[in-house]
Amino acid sequence: MSPRTLALAGGLIAAVASFTPSQAQLPAGTGPDVFRELRWRSIGPFRASRNRSATGHAARPYTFYAGVVNGGVWKTTDAGRTWFPIFDEQPTQSIGAVVVAPSNPDILYVGSGEGLQRPDLSVGDGVYKSVDGGRTWTHLGLRDAQQIANIAVDPRNPDRLFVAALGHPYGPNRERGIYRSTDGGRTFQPVLQKDENTGGNDVDIDPSNPQVVYANLWESRQGPWENAVWSGVGGIFKSVDGGATWRPLTNGLPEGVNQANIAIAPSEPRRLYATVATQRVGIYRSDDGGESWAQITTDTRPAGRIGGGDLPVPIVHPKNPDIVIMASTVSWKSVDGGRSWVPFKGAPGGEDYQGGWINPDNPDIIFMVADQGAVVSLNGGETWSSWYNQPTAQLYHVAADNAFPYRLCSGQQESGSACVASRGNYGAISDRDWLPVNVDEYGYVAVEGNYYEVPGRGRGKVQVLRYLHHLVLCQDRRSLIEYPLPPWGVRNQPFAAPGQKPPRYQPRNRKVSSQEEEKRLRAIDPVISAYVDFILGTPGLLRHQFLRRLFALSQRWSTTLFLRTIERAHRYQITSLETLQRIALLHLDQSALPDPLVDPELEKRPIYQEGSLTDTPDLSRYDE
Asked: Domain span at residue 421?
């Protein structure tokens, strides 16, 4: 795997140094050669982020291709069990469209630039082609389009294709709209354009008559600050002469259509479904090739924007025109032509599905892509493959701690955050070697020593949030919350404004000697002094290291919590720091979310309430 994919996909990269200093920065007698033996390696996290495009071919039922908005193109040949990157050597890793030529499973076209109007987007440099299943690639053109939202390939002729070029997200440019190529992408001709502000969002070819083409133009612009997006007039268009001429489709559609996503029913091509955006979003259907339209449902659930932003995407069953799946915040399914909808796949909180592909020969094979990754079903959606095997996370800022093995921490787009160990304990880095640290998306993590501390600034306040041995200060794009989350949840937390300066941890004085630490421990209470004597007299224990860790806990826990924990540790002769921390957990009441450092109510709480924390080992033998 190349450094480019690792960096752009957001999979954290571990190396002794993350940059090569200049000659002036290096000690005397050294040079850039000192870093020559360093090699990049992926450490995950193996939890995916936003995938934009999904495709496959009927002749190869277990092979699929996923386009990742910031991670290139990934391929599986075993129905999603394993994935491998096939686009790493290209100069862009931002992908908006991937399509396999229906008449040749070895020919792929890729449109770069994710094709979404979002505050956290990246752009590409045009269209690419592979004639060997993704082993090698050729850049074709449309370099200045920056965002390719969709590509449609003639089902009979792999050299004939249409490209929906969305254009520059932050400014005007001419290379946008609908383009056509009849020579396999060697040249492109603009066939449907409006102006330098209006781009192509969607394009679809009638599978029964490739001369019939449908397209959507969308006038849109991102602003210089988060979530500043404007949409003007676009519309749905149709050509019946292979793209030479076009006319707008308006009968039955609302006025002021801007963005639209169109789907043709393969088994009945005059049946069209479209999600249509004006000031609101509606789901429309045409049974006469777009000559007339009708809104088929008032159900707002399948019409809801993906994650509140992107327009839902219809996916029609290849053999039954009445069955349609809607990729939205969750995915929905209709079996009566779109009139009624039931949940199909997705967690209630939303997984933000961006699209999908259904095998035309075996409709039980379904491939879906979402903001959480790419998943495959071989039984019509009853079960799905995992997206915890794709190192395609979008990570914005990385911080390292001083643990061994060291960990790298970052906010993760769409999935909160991840802190990944640089090495696993069992010969590989698995999904057991990372954990969330409660930064959200493009928030910052600042790590103090072996502890997680994330300073959070919201509405003029600086909040230091700590929870036992993991100390977390959060600068979050939405809220400030503690880690780990207790089983009773968190509500009514203060908000933090996005786009603020990264937090910094001010290091403490590390020059405290072990003798001074022992002296300070003994000064807390005679019981703790007696416990220190017990530790120093325990053979086979790394006594001084244990006392250093014990001193660190005394600085981070409240005096009451520390004293009560050490009382029981001394009574039962505990020599495990992990057990100490579990005992401390049992001292906390689950009726509120306390800060154990400064909680004045801790004195009033019982030492232990059986069953007060879920999924906690039975430590009742430590009770009185």
From this structure: 395-507
